[in-house]
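Homework help board

Subject: predicted structure for assignment chain

Our instructor gave us this sequence and asked us to write out the predicted structure in token form, then describe one feature. I got the tokens but I'm not sure how to describe them. Can anyone check?
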Amino acid sequence: MRRRSGDNWIRIDDMAVSGARPFGNIVLQTFANRDFLQAHATDEQLLAVKPKMSPDAQLDQQLRPSEKGWQLTSLTLRLTSGVMFSQSLQPLVADFVGACDGSRTLAELTEALAGKVNASLDQVRRECLVVMRQLIERGFVCV
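My token output:
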């Protein structure tokens, strides 16, 4: 809990971690991430941001043998410290997220992805911004 002005919110996460771990910094970072998202509530505001993946992010892939060699069965983005959240990703989303190195805005990143997949820029931006908001809130992306 914290005292603040503005709308209140609550977040409950189901986590398989020990309560003995210190979580103070993680809670403060969660507040900062949520504050950032509220300050960048419109798509236009978020598109101007230059996101960078957290140094604690890790992408795990699982492969199975097939008739044509190894076949990708899953991609999972994980945090390796703090609250060890994980999230399944599709290959194109993993490529998009991997391009978040802090050098380009989300507008530039989504434009590049739209050209790569030959899809409408509006549709790509809509879908990418949903994913980006989730990743920022969970601490996968630093802004």
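Reply (TA_rk): Your tokens look well-formed. For the description, you could write something like this. The chain has a mean pLDDT of 89. That's the kind of observation they're looking for.
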